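[audit] Reproducing an earlier prediction to check determinism. Same input, same settings, fresh worker. If the tokens differ from the archived copy the diff job will pick it up downstream; this log only records the rerun itself.
[audit] input (317 residues):
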Amino acid sequence: MAAPATLYAIPATVPEKDRLTNQYMMKKRVYGWTAPVPAAIDPAQVHTILDIAAGTCAWSLDVVRAPQISARRAVVSIYTCDINLDILPPASVTDAEGIKTFAQDVTQPFAAEHHGKFDLVHMSFLTLCLTSEGWRAALENIHALLAPGGQVMLDELDPLFFKGQYSAPAAGSSYDLDKHMGGTSWIDKANCIYTAFALQKNFVIGLTFLLGPMLAQAGFTVEATEVAPAPFGKLCGTLPGLHGDSIAPYEALSADNLAFVLREFATRMFKDGTLEAPRGTRITGEEALEALLKEVDEGTRTEGVVSVGAYFVARKV
């Protein structure tokens, strides 16, 4: 039996809901957005919106309250969907804002009533949810959902940590994972959790430079894209956002969020006997697991780490 193309990595509990909301607020600071959408999207031209894998609906709620949309609520319809409705806000919250919700796996065909319906589709941070086959199916489905000339907004993060300096691989190549996972530093060990988990689940490494060609193959024209550093811990105080915004207020919060994610992944790999840090050294005891997580957390808080993120705005051809 083939592995599923959709694999949500973290249970939809309260800590994960809090993390997703915090992640959205920090992402806006990283990209320097003062609105829920970048300048390549004109809210005045948007009438029907779909937020896929909406999670806590942080983006949907931001959109519905944005001046350019709230002033036009009588003519704007907003829908959200997620594979797990438990992670959405209570119906009292979404109903109050006029947001329509439904359950949906993005890799599966949507109901025919939704085809060709939307001016704007948003999907964010499925880095640790979709395999390459899942991405192919998702982009095909999004293309079918959009009205002629409709736009899709995607933003993703590469599951790989850097010391502060980063660069995309040369065209046609990929990250040198041995370089980033083969050493004994705490960052190498962090990648032995974060990147190794992604590899085990067959998630795509390098979406920041792969999504452009994937969108073109699915029938889109990329209209805007930017790459930005996504700092965690100490580096929030030294690396500005893409357009100079300070990310310092998120120093402690980003470290807390990262510690939560890495504990979730490390614990899973520890239980199935696949956790190695450094690479080739298997973690076999609870004390060693806790020591590993403590080392990475202390490194994040005292030195900091950065990942690479990118957003894409593309139009249906």
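[audit] rerun output stored. Observation attached for the diff report: DSSP finds ten helices and seven strands in the chain.
[audit] end
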